[in-house]
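Troubleshooting log. The previous structure file for this entry was overwritten by mistake, so regenerating from the original sequence record. Sequence copied from the archived sheet and checked twice against the printout by T.R.
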Amino acid sequence: MTLASRLSTAANIGQMDTPKELWRMITGNMALIQVQATVVGFLASIAAVVFGWIPDGHFSIGHAVLLCASSVATAFIASLVLGMIMIGVIIGSRKMGINPDNVATPIAASLGDLITLALLSGISWGLYKELESKAYVNPLVCAFFIALLPIWIIIAKKNAATREVLYSGWEPVIIAMAISSVGGLILDRTVSDPNFAGMAVFTPVINGVGGNLVAVQASRISTYLHMSGMPGESSETAPRKCPSPCSTFFSSDVNSRSARVLFLLVVPGHLVFLYTISSMQGGHTTLTLIFIVFYMTAALLQVLILLYIADWMVHWMWGRDLDPDNFSIPYLTALGDLIGTGLLALSFHVLWLIGDRDSDVGD
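Regenerated output below.
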């Protein structure tokens, strides 16, 4: 998603107009996300091992290496595939006269979940089958992808547009991973209770929609600011210490109008997903009227909070000489996971307390 935001901004301000500039942006950014994918995939596997080992008190080195190999391979391949898709979408959008900010970032968010989960399940299943007979396969996979790191680092360092991100872009990605992990812990503790097992099918939906919408807004605001110069240069776009909700949602500013449009997309978007879940008989939760009211309230509140934070965060980063394309989206999408999961868990608990309980929960 940061790749999509960076390239959308570059396309909008004319940094990808010539074949030479286009090739330079593509190679540098693709190498950069391969570095980030490999490192963060490795760190995520370590975090998952620790979070699983501490509560259970049981540690298996074979399973830890399996998780590491699956995570690194998935992150690497998913980033490669998604990166190529994003490049095609952005180039196609520009040729068709469409603002890539409105197209590339949500596609990256939605396809990211789908492709990553599919790859993770397939790769981990394949590596798990080799665990007993060929124990060397998993360490070999880890070593292979880590050995490629110096190549991607060299390519990314040669590009001025990605050199800075290579050094300074780790903090938001790693902190975002930690924030999302807290949301994962909330989900794990909630669905482990049979009374709330139905929450599992709705969590990716509420988090995915919220993350998509706030990523679009952050990317649009960032592009708007880049039109006036470089981060920290323009006095007209000085950071707002605490923007009022009225200025975020009800002013005549172009970003305020886009915030209103994105907020209005929440209800119809979620109704489509709820209908799809119901028609496919997914999960263990009957879609009663009171459930839909609580679910929609949580979804609307999540997006409202995220859009407000995005308005403040992007301007704050810009005023402090930080490129929002590289820093804001990881924080915002991670906060979307945490807030969405927390509000959804709260909704399920309140519904249980007031008596809206399904007889088939936990089947």
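Residues 66 and 128 are 7 Å apart (CA to CA). Archived copy saved in two places this time.
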